[in-house]
Design goal:
Helices cover 0% and strands 19% of the residues. By secondary structure, the protein is an all-beta fold. Strands 1-4-5 form a 3-stranded antiparallel beta sheet, with no helix packed on it. The chain is globular and about 45 Å long. The chain has no helices and 6 strands.
């Protein structure tokens, strides 16, 4: 889910504020220390107050492929707002990361 197409938020006209924790963005965990009430609602007020949002913008300038992207800079974002993946690894093994 590197293109952030899951969950499909096409029912929302602009964005969804991502709740803290795992399983909202398929395959990713979200850490939002700047907010206590993130709820995953469409355009939850106040607008762009959350640190992590999924943006629905087909053909828009911020979408590389697909129809959605992640905004990491909500207007009240603070250092530490982040998304991450847990990867299973083996000590001593070599891995290649691709971005």
């Amino acid at each position: 889910n590197g293109d952030f197409e899951q969950p499909d938020i096409s029912h929302c006209p602009v964005y969804v504020a991502v709740p803290e924790g795992s399983d909202f963005i398929t395959g990713w965990h979200v850490n939002i220390p700047s907010i206590n009430s993130a709820n995953g609602g469409c355009q939850s007020p106040p607008i762009y107050s959350h640190g992590v949002d999924i943006i629905y913008q087909p053909g828009g300038p911020y979408v590389n492929t697909g129809k959605q992207s992640v905004d990491m800079a909500g207007s009240m974002a603070t250092p530490g707002d982040s998304i991450f993946q847990d990867l299973s690894t083996v000590p001593g093994a070599t891995y290649e990361l691709t971005f």
